[in-house]
């Protein structure tokens, strides 16, 4: 108890030195927490963006859809029934679902906002299960929609609100229909969360005034390896009519790209850990070297080498623990606030609608295991660097310590 009292007195007695050490360590903990939360957000987005693309799904679209979809997307539609019948005969393990997507506009507060509408079939369990409902209920009736949480948060929309959608129709005209927001969801892609909403295929057909589909998704009931999927994709491509294009996302080896991205994010985080450790080490050593005289005086007053060493290490532990906790808590609070008001790096609709599903929204993901690691690493480093120089100084003779400071 006496040591704790003396340690606290020393901390508050030298306020400038203590504040410098406190802010140095707190800033390091804050930066490390923010960097890891951004990295976790990027990793989560990468996994979400790749989840459906490496699961054995194959997409079919008209060969000119991607090239001209910004000008007249509904002029390049896919016929579902002939494709489903064609594959059912030779590939009974395959299921074909229509998953339409169409650029559109949200009319809100007398302003048009670009977004992307997606549609689904009620029995398309693969797609439905990949969507996490955060609030409300998944659309069950006509004129109901589900919206990505970033999009709903951006325009302050809530469950039960009426939403007006405007879009181009198949006959070259336009259509405006009002829908009820029944669910706020987490799509399997961050770009969908920022710019997308989903409705049933029947509602999409009514909105677009068409019975055709923009995209078909081919899903295997069996688990397929990358090699098996690539082989299947080649076989299916030979069966397709020439006006259709088949996209197998394994062709770009999304798994390998994901591993490379994870490695780069891990490397970036490690570099920040090393730099942060250097700041903690430098701060601790400078603080102790400035107090060499104080160490000598304590020895002269009768404190043993072990007592002096324990006192200074205890003081460092108290100060750095408070600093680490403060820095981490500040980062957690800031991450929470930034998630309430997402940062949009890119609001251009053409990029948001790209087939690569790259999001323009930065999200901060806080994981408790990362917080424990940051706190443990920072605490361990600060304790070690406080112990080593203190041990070196306390081993010197009292006369030597005092003489060098005169």
UniProtKB/TrEMBL annotation:
Q: Name one GO cellular component term.
A: plasma membrane protein complex
Q: Where in the cell is it found?
A: Cell membrane
Q: Where is the ABC3 transporter permease C-terminal domain?
A: 268-396
Q: Name one GO biological process term.
A: lipoprotein localization to outer membrane
Q: Which Pfam family, just one, is annotated for this protein?
A: FtsX
Q: Keywords on this record?
A: Cell membrane, Membrane, Transmembrane, Transmembrane helix
Transmembrane parts of this sequence: 263-289, 310-338, 371-388
What membrane topology is annotated for this entry?
Answer: Multi-pass membrane protein
Its domain of life reads: Bacteria
Protein family: Belongs to the ABC-4 integral membrane protein family. LolC/E subfamily.
Query: What is the protein's name according to its record?
Result: ABC transporter permease
């Amino acid at each position: 108890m006496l040591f704790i009292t003396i340690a606290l007195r020393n901390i508050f007695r030298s306020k400038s030195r203590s504040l410098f050490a406190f802010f140095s360590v707190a800033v390091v903990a804050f930066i490390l927490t923010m960097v890891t939360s951004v990295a976790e957000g990027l990793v989560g987005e990468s996994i979400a963006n790749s989840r459906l693309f490496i699961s054995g799904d194959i997409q079919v679209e008209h060969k000119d859809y991607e090239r001209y979809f910004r000008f007249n997307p509904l002029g390049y539609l896919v016929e579902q029934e002939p494709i489903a019948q064609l594959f059912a005969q030779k590939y009974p393990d395959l299921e074909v679902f229509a998953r339409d997507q169409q650029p559109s506009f949200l009319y809100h507060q007398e302003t048009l906002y670009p977004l992307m509408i997606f549609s689904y079939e009620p029995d398309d369990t693969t797609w439905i299960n990949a969507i996490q409902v955060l609030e409300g209920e998944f659309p069950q009736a006509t004129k109901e929609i589900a919206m990505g949480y970033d999009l709903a948060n951006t325009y302050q929309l809530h469950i039960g609100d009426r939403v007006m959608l405007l879009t181009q129709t198949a006959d070259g005209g336009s259509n405006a229909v009002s829908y009820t927001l029944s669910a706020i969801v987490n799509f399997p892609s961050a770009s969908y969360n920022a710019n997308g909403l989903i409705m049933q295929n029947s509602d999409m057909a009514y909105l677009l005034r068409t019975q055709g589909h923009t995209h078909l998704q081919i899903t295997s009931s069996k688990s397929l390896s990358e090699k098996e999927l690539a082989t299947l994709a080649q076989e299916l491509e030979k069966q397709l009519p020439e006006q259709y294009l088949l996209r197998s996302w394994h062709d770009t080896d999304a798994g390998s790209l994901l591993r490379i991205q994870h490695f780069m994010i891990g490397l970036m985080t490690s570099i920040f850990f090393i730099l942060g450790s250097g700041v903690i080490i430098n701060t601790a050593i400078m603080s102790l070297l400035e107090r060499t005289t104080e160490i000598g005086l304590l020895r002269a007053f009768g404190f043993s080498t072990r007592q002096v060493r324990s006192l200074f290490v205890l003081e460092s532990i108290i100060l750095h623990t408070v600093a680490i906790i403060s820095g981490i808590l500040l980062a957690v609070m800031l991450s929470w606030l930034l998630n309430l008001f997402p940062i949009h790096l890119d609001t251009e609709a053409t990029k948001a609608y790209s087939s690569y599903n790259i999001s323009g929204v930065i999200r901060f993901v806080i994981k408790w295991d990362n917080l424990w690691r940051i706190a443990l690493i920072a605490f361990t480093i600060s304790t070690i660097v406080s112990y080593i120089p203190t041990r070196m100084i306390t081993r010197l003779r009292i006369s030597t310590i005092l003489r060098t400071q005169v």
